[in-house]
From TrEMBL:
Start and end residues of each CENP-V/GFA domain: 2-114
Gene3D superfamilies: glutathione-dependent formaldehyde- activating enzyme (gfa)
Keyword list, A-Z: Lyase, Metal-binding, Zinc
Recorded superkingdom: Bacteria
Upper lineage: Bacteria, Pseudomonadati, Pseudomonadota, Alphaproteobacteria, Rhodobacterales
Identification of the protein by name: Aldehyde-activating protein
Ranges in a coiled coil: none
Similarity-based family: Belongs to the Gfa family.
InterPro entries per UniProt: CENP-V/GFA, Mss4-like_sf
GO molecular function: carbon-sulfur lyase activity; metal ion binding
Length: 122
């Protein structure tokens, strides 16, 4: 099981299922909300237990983003028409055993860095 929390600890979460889609998102929305790149994985919603009050921001008609209203930590991403939820890898405690599988929305990445880790880019 993986466990994580926001910076202030008001929101904690546990991941009981096997995470999928381990990725680094370079889209403009993730860059704006996180300050750089947002790394995440997803599980079925039933495999993610959240305690604390998540504030949801309707980023687009297709998805919402969950964050802590106290410390501002961007923790979750949820498409309205899917039964999975993405969670922030950076919010996890301790070793995860996960490895980055892909970079996504790389056409939108900032011009101040290069992606040179050999992981597939989309």
């Amino acid at each position: 099981m993986l466990e994580g929390s926001c910076l202030c600890g008001n929101i904690c979460f546990s991941v009981t299922g096997a995470p999928e889609g381990v990725s680094a998102c370079h889209c403009g929305q993730c860059r704006k909300q996180s300050g750089h790149v947002w790394s995440s994985a997803f599980v079925p919603e039933t495999d993610l237990e959240i305690t604390g009050a998540v504030t949801w921001y309707e980023a687009t008609p297709q998805a919402k983003r969950g964050f802590c209203a106290t410390c501002g930590a961007f923790l979750f991403w949820k498409a309205h028409d899917e039964d999975t939820m993405s969670f922030a890898l950076g919010a996890l405690d301790g070793p995860t055993g996960l490895r980055l599988e892909k970079h996504i929305f790389t056409a939108d990445k900032g011009d101040y860095y290069e992606i040179a880790d050999g992981v597939p880019q989309k």
